[in-house]
Amino acid sequence: MDAPSDLVRRLRDRFVETGYTIDGVRERLGDMAAAALAREEIVPALRATRDADPLATLIRLWWLGTPVSMAAADLPVQGLIEAGLLVRLGDSLQATVHLQPWDTGTGDPAYVVSDRKVRPGDPSLRPDHVVGAGGASANLAQLGWAAPVERALDLGTGCGVQVLHLAPRAEHIVATDVNRRALRLARLSWGLSGVTGVEAREGSMYDPVDDERFDLVVSNPPFVIAPEARYTYREAGRRGDEFCRDLVRRTPRHLAQGGQARFLANWLHVKGEDWQDRVGGWLTETGCDGWAVQRDVQDPAEYVELWLRDSAEHGTSAYRERYDEWLGWFESMDVTGVGFGWIALHDSGSLSPLVRVEEMTQPVEPPSGALVEEVLRAARTAHELSDDDLLDARLKPAEGVVEERVGPPGADDPSRIVLRQTRGARRTAAVGTVEAALAGVCDGELPTRPLLAAIAELTGEDPGEVLGRAPAALRSLIAEGFLDVASPR
């Protein structure tokens, strides 16, 4: 049952007045215990909260999952028990959920309610387990950053954390999930965080929104690629990476004009197939501009181990059997690895949609969502310029681009020249002497052609050869954000 709104309000007030906020918990625990807690290690936090003061009691009860005395709790106990959030153990209380403060970046108190993380030795996960907020949630929140919108959709809301990030900039939010328990806990997350007016709907993928359209769609979907759907929060029961593929394909019909979608996803690396062609094919079919980024890749064994640890199955009697079954399933599909990353779509209305697929393992400047339009705009500019247009363009280095030269100490010439972005995507590009010289002298005032001719003369190269090979290099440097095309004067 849902907790009464009055009970939720009283609980929120108690949290705020006691300092059970993200900053309050960090200060109360200290750096070491807070850092350990971020790694899912609770012993330092238990030691830091032994005094049982009011804030320590709340941390132990709701975040660490430790029983506390009824006298120390100072909470509306009976109402919380009736709502199924607490159970009585003699003279002590224990929470049935994990309830933690969350940082939305606004400074306002926010809270996320989920099932408690299962650890080795605990009872196995229930099929409708509601996973809490963590690194993936934070990554999607960064990716989902966008300008204010009228209508937003959080597809597969889980514990409701993405709604907390959408609320400050979306006038109307719809949140869906196939798991009814997830919607119940999500509503509690929103209530404790002071978020109102969210429309929660039960159902799979886009079924609950039928033919509705949105300005922004975000999703941390059940992307785990597994032989069976054991847990609704992570597995959809589709073959291979078909769920993520279909999510991408179905999205355009739910985007308003100019609308955007931002997803986390997994995809297969298959023997004899380029993963970029595979994922690029998904994006090409949408008719939208698209950007897919692989942030990590694991071999099949690493992937299986990750998700068996996630469900606390390492060391259990079924571990080896499930491990072997999962690997055999991958082998039957010639899988060589699994990629992790994000996908962004933009319904730009272009008759020639642009698709970019790349691997980026370096840290990027937050929020990553702010990069989407910047990256697509740069790639489109480079794509649409002819060779002559590139040579006649007035170029300038993008903001934050620096040059690095590598070579033996005292050498006259570097063995390698690198352009590096200190902001945005933070890419690096190895360039030749001519390209480095151009990046050093172009300032948006003179066309590229005469600058290249002068550089050729200084370096002793044939001007015709320099001009002939320049467009390909310039197109890449513009597409990747190292050079900007200056506005016409």
TrEMBL record:
Gene Ontology molecular function, alphabetical: methyltransferase activity
Pfam families linked to this entry: DUF7059, MTS
Statement: the UniProt record of this protein carries the keyword Glycoprotein: no
Keyword annotations of the record: Methyltransferase, S-adenosyl-L-methionine, Transferase
Domain named DUF7059: residues: 18-95
Alphabetized PANTHER family for the sequence: METHYLTRANSFERASE N6AMT1 (PTHR45875)
Family that this chain belongs to: Belongs to the eukaryotic/archaeal PrmC-related family.
The name this protein goes by in its record: Methyltransferase
Matching CDD domains: AdoMet_MTases
Domain of life, per lineage: Bacteria
Domain (Methyltransferase small) ranges: 150-266
One of the GO BP terms on file: methylation
Span of the signal peptide: none
